[in-house]
Amino acid sequence: MNPTLLPDVSAIILSSGLSERMGQPKALLKWNHETTFIEKIIGEFHRFGCQQVVCMINTAIETACSTLDVSSNVKFVVNHHPEWGRFHSIRIGLGTLKGTDFCFIHNVDNPFVNRDIVEKLYLLRDGNSWCSPMYNGKGGHPVLITRQIAERILGIHDLNTTLADVLNQYPRVSVAMDDDSIHRNINTLEDYKRFVG
After folding, report:
1. Does residue 36 lie within any of the structural domains?
2. Residue 133 domain-assigned?
3. What total of structural domains would you count in the chain?
4. In this model, does residue 23 exceed pLDDT 80?
5. In Å, how far from its chain's centre is CA 190?
6. Which pLDDT value is given to residue 111?
7. Counting CB atoms within 10 angstroms of each CB, which of 1, 8, 62, 191 has the fewest?
8. What are phi and psi for residue 182, nearest 5 degrees?
9. How far apart are CA 58 and CA 110, in angstroms?
């Protein structure tokens, strides 16, 4: 059964990094026997109702991603220069979106995102602020940005800029969470064994 898609919100999943510390693509790590990290994350944003879900990938996983069974509102976009950094990938992703007022940005190395977290952020959306979950005074992912912030990012061409540099120029709405899953990034095999497998 397909969810009702919300016309004002989309998501970008960042998965074009080279996964050097992991030694294999994090997007294709198994969340469970049937599902990879990227499929699990796509599923959470899709079930929530994101109008568009853009997955930023690199050429190493392009073929594997093309075989995934995903909804028609999911788009895989290749970043041919992952070495240019995360901000470059975010810019490409935002440039593919059309007519969205809010956009979630999420990293593929945190597969613990779930529909409940996404919904809590969305319910507190504010056209003048960005929103993120918080646990023990520390923010995590995903973040929810506005069209205004997206347009600001699209206008920046300095590759030394970070997402935090931009977000720090705007008010923030924080959503308290009950556990530290918003901070769990799977960057090494040790992380993977500890938190997932």
Report:
1. yes
2. yes
3. 1
4. no
5. 22
6. 95
7. 1
8. -70, -15
9. 18
Per-residue pLDDT tens digits for 34-47: 999 999 999 999 99
86 sits in which H/E element: helix 86-96
DSSP assignments along 111-160, one per residue: TT--HHHHHHHHHT--TT-EEEEEETTEE-S-EEEEHHHHHHHHT---TT
Q: How confident is the model at residue 2 (pLDDT cuts 50, 70, 90)?
A: low
How many CB atoms are closer than 10 A to CB 52?
A: 20
Percent of the chain with pLDDT over 90: 82
Calculate the alpha carbon distances from 34 to 39, 40, 42 in Å.
Answer: 9, 10, 14
Around 68, how many Cα atoms within 13 Å sit in the side-chain half-sphere?
A: 24
- Provide the CATH number for the domain around residue 112: 3.90.550.10
DSSP state letters, 150-180: HHHHHT---TT--HHHHHTTS-EEEEE-SSG
**Sign of the four-CA dihedral 113, 101, 50, 15:** negative
Residue 150 lies inside a defined structural domain of this protein: yes
Place of tokens 């977290």: 117
Percent of the chain with pLDDT over 70: 98
The answer for residues whose C-beta is within 8 angstroms of residue 164's C-beta and 6 or more apart is none
Domain that residue 191 falls in: 9-195
pLDDT at 49: 95
Distance CA 36, CA 68 (A): 10
Domain annotation covers residue 1: no
